[in-house]
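Dear H.,

Thanks for agreeing to be a second pair of eyes. The structure we're designing against is below in token form, covering all 290 positions.
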């Protein structure tokens, strides 16, 4: 099952920070407070995904993971991770208690800070979680933040979120995030690969997304993606496939304001539909969701 859709937040209820939480919703990671069991859970999840991902994940992810070598032994200390990451792309990781309000999330990204949940799941939830935890946020998201192009895309996304706030367009941006940052696939010379954090951090979806005959794999098209509803409680019915991180960055570099207006006038698409206009890479048989 998919461990955790929603990266740090695309839901718009705002909550007030509680004790120990700063105004920007960050907290101290408090690395010393993790138990041996917490570290053991990290290692188990890490080793499982590290064994599964070669040949399935985009090479840039594995490069990032190697580079962030401090993440292999146990739950990484964000301060040490940040020394490496800051040098590579200027990003840092900040600890948060869980989902944060949209604007707070966008503001962090716009400033090259990635909010990562500071707690890790327990053993009963190794395979399925309803909200992002530390393993998803750090293992899933941080390796690609060491890639310069992906790092720029994430910052541009945050800036776009700040611009879109209050304009009733956040659902379109949420879908873009969902189908790229969380559940994106990419074409490589060796074939389709995963790069979305929601896939990369999930054993079963790492396999399903690439190998199941059930879901559609459709070429990325900005307006198509922003018009498509998604499932948060199960494997995706459709994955969108980018050609490269640079092409994703380029496709999203235009001003979205006119696109939002146009999309407001058009219907949304259900997660499993295939359109005439789609570049269909693989047409799913839908067997899993039926
Ligand atoms: N180009 C978008 C805008 O004009 C911002 C954006 C960039 C959004 C990258 C998502 C990803 O708002
Ligand atoms: Fe996420």
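And this is the sequence the design step returned. I haven't edited it by hand at all.
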């Amino acid at each position: 099952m998919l461990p955790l859709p929603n990266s740090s937040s695309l839901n718009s209820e705002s909550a007030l920070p509680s004790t120990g939480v700063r105004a920007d919703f960050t907290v101290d990671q408090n690395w010393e407070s993790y138990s041996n069991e917490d570290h053991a859970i990290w290692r188990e999840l890490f080793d499982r995904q590290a064994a599964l991902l070669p040949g399935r994940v985009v090479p840039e992810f594995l490069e990032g993971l190697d580079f962030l070598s401090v993440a292999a032994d146990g739950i990484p200390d964000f301060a040490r991770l940040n020394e490496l990451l800051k040098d590579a792309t200027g990003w840092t990781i900040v600890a948060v208690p869980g989902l944060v309000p949209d604007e707070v999330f966008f503001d962090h990204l716009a400033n090259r800070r990635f909010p990562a949940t500071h707690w890790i799941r327990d053993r009963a939830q190794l395979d399925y979680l309803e909200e992002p935890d530390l393993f998803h946020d750090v293992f899933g998201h941080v390796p690609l933040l060491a890639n310069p192009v992906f790092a720029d895309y994430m910052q541009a996304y945050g800036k776009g979120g700040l611009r879109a706030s209050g304009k009733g367009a956040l659902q379109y941006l949420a879908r873009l995030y969902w189908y790229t940052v969380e559940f994106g696939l990419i074409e490589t010379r060796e074939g389709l690969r995963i790069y979305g954090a929601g896939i990369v951090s999930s054993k079963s979806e790492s396999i399903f997304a690439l190998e199941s005959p059930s879901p559609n794999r459709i070429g990325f098209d900005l307006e198509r993606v922003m018009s498509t509803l998604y499932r948060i409680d199960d494997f995706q019915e459709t994955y969108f496939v980018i050609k490269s991180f640079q092409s994703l960055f380029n496709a999203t570099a235009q001003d979205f304001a006119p696109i939002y207006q146009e999309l407001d006038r058009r219907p949304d698409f259900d997660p499993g539909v295939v359109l005439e206009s789609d570049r269909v890479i693989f047409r799913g048989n839908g067997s899993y969701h039926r």
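Two observations from my side: The first strand starts at residue 92 and ends at 96. The chain has a mean pLDDT of 93.

Warmly,
E.
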